[in-house]
Known about the structure:
Elements: H1 6-15, E1 21-22, H2 30-33, H3 35-55, H4 58-63, H5 65-73, E2 85-86, H6 88-96, H7 98-116, H8 118-121, E3 144-146, E4 153-155, H9 156-159, H10 166-189
Antiparallel strand pairs: 1-2, 3-4
Helix pairs in contact: 3-7, 5-7
Amino acid sequence: QYKVAKSSHLFLRSVSAKPMINISTFSPNLSRIAPVLDQAHRLRKKLIYLSAYLTACPRAAQDGIKVTLAEIVWPRDYLYTGTEVYSIADLEQLHSGVLISTLVSAVKMCTSHVTSCLICSGRGFICEICRDKKPVYPFNLDTTSQCKDCKTVFHLHCSKGIVSCPKCERIENRNLQWHVNNSKMTREIGPVDE
């Protein structure tokens, strides 16, 4: 800590809870210097996925799960809507370990609901490679991978051997088949005048 002018101190106190520090604008190697930033980033990314499950679940609303999540991180709902923005108070809590504890608590509570709720677990993915019946979820960042195009989720160990996403290939084949059929039909009946 360093001494600052009273006006600077008042300013820093007035903005300490405002999410205005975008970590991504700093050095791309920042997480190597401060690994806790990477840990917080991953936990916040998990919360983004989990929050989407809770938003789509009527049972989560009835049980107050989304409200509980908001209470755990209150008043910082930006912690589960993005991964890059922090307040000064957040960075102080990150340094002390309080923010990580808060995020871990929120992730555990949300994960418990999603994996035990019939509606949420029904929205899990079946790995298209091994076809295991146990659903995989995008918030399990350490054990899953996700197609950047179609967002399908695979087991991480299953996805290592694939060159392209099976679902994307199916969609591409379906689109190609549609164009072929459409072209055949146009040749057979001729162009349609409007």
